[in-house]
Amino acid sequence: MASAARLARLRELTEADIESLPTRAPEPVFDDSDVSGGVQLEPLIEEPSKQTAANTSQPPPHPITVEADTDRRFIWLKDAESSYKPGPSLKPSIVTIAPKPSAPLPTTYLKRGDLCPAQHHFVPIQALVKYPYKFCNKIHSQDIASAFFDQGKFWTRTWDLYYVWDIDNLSKPLILVHETQFQDLLNEINNHLKLSLYITDEQREDALVSRFPDHPRCTPRYLGRSTSREDYDNMVDNAPEHSFRAVGEPDGPPPDERTLEAFKQLMEDSFEAQKAKNKAAKAKRQQERLVKQRVMADQFKRTQRYLGLRPSPAVDNAAPNGLPPAVDPTLPVPFDFDQSVVFVCVDVESYERAHHKITEVGIATLDTRELASVSPGYDGANWRALIRARHFRIKEYAHLVNSQFVSGHPDGFDFGESTMVSLADAPTHVAACFSPPFGAHHSNGGEGIVDLMHGINLNEKRNIIFLGHDTLGDVRYLQNLGFDPIKLDNLLEALDTAIMYRVWRREQNPTSLGRILYDFDIAGYKLHNAGNDAVFTMQAMLGIAVREAAIRGSSELDSMRGNEKSARLSEALEEARKKACDEAEGWSDHEVDGDGGVPVPIALSPAQLASAQAASQTPSETNGRGAYRGRGHGRGGARGASHNAHESVEGHATISGRGRAIPDRSRNGGIHSRTRGGHDGRFDQQGRGDGSHRGRGRGRGSSMAFGNNISDPPVCFPDLD
Questions:
Q1: Which of 69, 161, 543, 557 is most buried, judged by most C-beta within 10 A?
Q2: Where are the beta strands (DSSP E) in 144-261?
Q3: Which residues contact 390 (CB under 8 A, 6 or more apart)?
């Protein structure tokens, strides 16, 4: 009773306060059933109280800025697809904003089917689309892919597409993009993600970036400009045939055997670059690279023998092996000039928008007989004065001047006077430079024509060395012009300054002529004038050969090699260190955060689910018969008894094969084992089984279970060793 009295007293004391409170509308009742979908996400609309309604003089409150809630909340919706997709990323993506749109490509003057410039490099587009996953650091793969490749972003970029047909496989052409557009993409990735990606030597070695042979059958042709995957597919499906020629393009001779083999190998490597990594193919390319380096080094040594800078075993009674002594460049060379050769260097310039239109031919010659009593000088400076040069301009194309890809200087010949010749007479003028007096002309020397011809035997056939920078391209141009130097019976071989410089600097990739001239302090003015380039190429050859001979076997050369090796090693170590740090950072970013979260269910795509269901429903040939698949070399046995409505069969199995057999339970309680490339075996029977497996290795294993009845005789497979 006392408690009831106290309760009544408390009600009287608080009743006045409770009555003064505003009346509040009842809250809606929430349904927790599966039909409604759970908690209502829309904010509740409250009735304003009388107290707040009466006070109208107060200013409206400032809007409240609600920051994004980083803790995601989820609700369950029946039959809805989950948006949670766990991925293999090591750390959360750092991409927070979309990259800036790429700059528009400049206007191209190429038409569909036009040949591209022969000296340019290209990238297979189907290899480039795999760049984030195959050619760059895995720690950045997802960030790069999300920002520039996934969801069709790669194909919506503007690409200038080129095509080239294989010799044997004519099902589809190889589609390429220009190296500069690949570099533009890397620049955008670097700017957006603060990276330092670049085209590596290894990527070039793996045929991600390549230069194709200079022949109309092997050089890429322009296909068109693509801005979507639909554009790309339509262009590929409607690419011109392999026999297509642009308007006005003459029919040239078929590629020679050497060019054809190089093209086939390049196409094979390019198609391989579009596939997954292949260790066997990489090892094969490594072996081919070592053989190629040996061939290039031998070419370098022969060049020095021709110039008297290295002894010849047949002439100087020198040992074929061992390092020869260094040469003093201030004295005449101590060794004989092997083969008494004449170097003939050729450079050809063509119009950049129609490469079959040859505009200039430059020829520089150097007779080694004139070098006998002259010291080479530092980097061959004294021998440079003995170079003779000619510059021929083709009259029909004199109005065509390159300016888009290179800056042409057809009027800037600095080593004599240019000679204007007709297209029909050009082969004769070029051929004259391969025979006495080997380019000697009153326009390139102070002597008169009589003095130049004095003492020259016009009937003598001297040994010729064809020289160039990227020699095969110039040979092809001369053939198209109507003069084939390969057919000269006194031509010993063709040398290439690009190869010589690679041997000298031990580099994997060729270097431009301008960079070589800079390395030897040669003032290379008005490059891309054919006459100037021919002279500069000859000077570069002398500089490379003489400098190596002058410091051969010295501490200076050892120091230079050591510094170059240390620089390359430091660069490789820095790249490896950065890669290791990035990978370690990815693992440790969330090491102390969280407890692992909730379990992640296994998610199978519809295709994987259908495949698994089809495999589980595949019946065996007969009850008690099946084939094991296993890894390892082993033998095992299984025995069991099956029971059905018709018969009872006791069975056993004999297993033989290479590999490790991995038994598993089938869906009907039998035994199921797997291996690569064999058969599935199941015992759809209830019973018991035992087995043992031994061995190591890879291969196929098989097993056959059979019953003790007349219709099923025992069968055993022999070992596959």
A1: 543
A2: 159-164, 174-178, 221-226
A3: 362, 363, 364, 416, 419, 429, 433, 439, 441, 443, 444, 531
Beta strands at 671-674 and 681-682: parallel, antiparallel or unpaired = antiparallel
Distance CA 135, CA 149 (A): 14
Q: Which amino acid does the sequence have at 318?
A: A
List, in order, residues 6 or more apart from 124 with CB less than 8 Å away: 174, 175, 176, 207, 208, 270, 271, 273, 274
Q: What is the pLDDT of residues 506-529, one digit of tens each?
A: 988 889 999 999 999 999 899 999
Coil, strand or helix: which one is 419?
A: strand
Cβ neighbours, 10 Å, residue 259: 18
HSE, side-chain direction, 13 A CA sphere, residue 87: 12
Domain boundaries, the chain: 122-270, 338-497+504-553, 620-707
Contacts of 108 (CB under 8 A, 6+ apart): 160, 222, 225
Domain covering 338-497+504-553, topology:
Nucleotidyltransferase; domain 5 (3.30.420)
CA distance 249 to 527: 27
Q: Which of 626, 633, 615 is nearest to 681 (CA)?
A: 626
Quote the pLDDT of residue 578: 79
Q: How far apart are CA 56 and CA 468, in angstroms?
A: 93
Q: How far apart are CA 121 and CA 179, in angstroms?
A: 6
Distance of CA 105 to the CA centre of its chain: 22
Alpha carbons 469 and 128: distance in angstroms, whole number: 29
- Give the list of residues 6+ apart from residue 575 with CB closer than 8 angstroms, or none: none
The tens digit of pLDDT for each residue in 153-178 reads 999 999 999 999 999 888 899 999 99
Residues belonging to the chain? 721
Q: What would the pLDDT profile of 364-409 be if each residue is shown by its tens digit?
A: 999 999 999 999 999 999 999 999 999 999 999 999 999 888 899 9
- Measured CA to CA in angstroms, residue 23 lies from 50, 56, 546, 553, 610 at distances of 9, 20, 104, 103, 60
Task: Give the long-range contacts of residues 486-489, CB within 8 A, separation 24 or more.
Answer: 486/256, 488/434, 488/464, 489/461
Burial 391-401 (b: 16+ CB within 10 A, else e): bbbbeebeebe
